């Protein structure tokens, strides 16, 4: 997928969904829909995300935003798009709505937005799901960076933090993808395999179960 040809639907408009939508638009993606607790907004030509976030900051809601069509949260998930990013609540993609989802790629910004039953359907349809354990790991990664800086007593610039975060996340994705291909499993199962293997390796190195 090339950014300029990719339509993105983001559930949420807060710290995960809103900032995620903003960063995606900066990279050239066309963000056609975002949402909050009041519902969703949609513009097939693409939303002006800075303007949307300014409206949310002023009014604390998407209600009243004049440059887009209003949709329900259920309708938002059925929109034609290339990428769907559920970044709000758990159990949003279920056996009840999974057959109506048209996205080619799902990136889980929230914790547990896809049920196991829906996960199986998406895998059978060939829809790539980047699971929450991988996709939203940036926050805890930066928390680790903060701990490292505190330990050293030397603090990095935002540019350095973002650069090291990108390196860590890209490397993690590539590692998971290799496991996915090796074992012919989903990205979610591959993430679990890799995580468990790394924990087991540490235990073996320390001789705790020798």
Question: Describe it for me?
Answer:
The chain is α/β, with parallel strands linked by helices. It folds into two domains: 3-131, NAD(P)-binding Rossmann-like Domain (Rossmann fold, 3-Layer(aba) Sandwich), CATH 3.40.50.720; 138-206. It contains eight helices and seven strands. It has helices spanning 17-26, 49-59, 73-77, 116-125, 132-135, 138-152, 158-183, 187-206; strands spanning 7-11, 30-36, 39-42, 69-71, 83-86, 105-107, 128-130. A seven-stranded mixed β-sheet has the order 4-3-2-1-5-6-7, sandwiched between helices. Helix 6 (138-152) packs across helix 7 and helix 7 (158-183) crosses helix 8 (187-206). It is globular. The mean pLDDT is 95.
* CATH architectural designation of the largest domain: 3-Layer(aba) Sandwich
Task: Write down the CATH class of the largest domain.
Answer: Alpha Beta
Helix tally equals 8
H/E element sequence: EHEEHEHEEHEHHHH
Largest sheet: 7 strands, mixed
Shape: globular
Determine the CATH topology of the largest domain: Rossmann fold
SSE blueprint:
Layout: E1 7-11, H1 17-26, E2 30-36, E3 39-42, H2 49-59, E4 69-71, H3 73-77, E5 83-86, E6 105-107, H4 116-125, E7 128-130, H5 132-135, H6 138-152, H7 158-183, H8 187-206
